[in-house]
Design brief:
Layout lengths: L1 H4 L5 E4 L2 E9 L4 H12 L6 H18 L8 E9 L3 E7 L18 H8 L2 E7 L3 E9 L2 E2 L6 E2 L8
Antiparallel strand pairs: 1-2, 2-3, 3-4, 4-6, 5-6, 7-8
């Protein structure tokens, strides 16, 4: 990750849009670094807390259930901000069958349930050989002029 240390946090793609990307070793301790990176990059965005929560769930899945957990494995966080429209974020892993890990046998994980509940849209692309990309979109909140309450485009109250 040394080459990433000097990389800019944000790469502007237009006057009101930008993206960021960073890769991490596929170890559970790296999930907190991915969260911190995204929190720093998204500082000032209205859905930063939701985005960091969801990316944390996806990173945890990558290091616990995919081939990213194997020696030399990686996962990559990518986010795009389209101000006034939406935040798009994804985690790419090293593929595999999304194995159940020890300690989770008999339990059903709820990380993707959280993603389903909070995200405006989400999905999974890829395959076990080339890797999985799990993504989500959070609509930019609009302010209800009458109440001053921020409401996401999908009608839910925004955080």
């Amino acid at each position: 990750m040394a080459e990433q240390a000097n990389a800019p946090l944000r790469v502007m793609t237009s006057e009101s849009s930008w993206r960021c990307r960073r890769s991490y070793a596929g170890k559970p301790a790296q999930v907190r670094h991915a969260r911190a990176f995204l929190a720093e990059v998204l500082e000032g965005c209205p859905r930063v807390d939701d985005t960091v929560l969801l990316i944390s769930e996806l990173c945890a899945n990558a290091v616990l259930h995919s081939n990213s957990r194997k020696p030399g494995g990686l996962f990559t966080v990518h986010a795009e901000v389209h101000e006034g429209k939406y935040i798009w974020a994804e985690v790419a892993d090293c593929g595999g069958l999304w194995a159940t890990t020890e300690g989770c046998v008999g339990e059903r994980g709820h990380g993707l349930d959280i993603v389903r509940e909070i995200a405006s849209d989400w999905g999974r692309d890829g395959d076990p050989l080339t890797g999985w990309v799990v993504w989500f979109r959070l609509d930019w909140p609009v302010t209800d002029v009458g109440s001053g309450t921020k409401v996401a485009r999908n009608g839910q109250q925004a955080s």
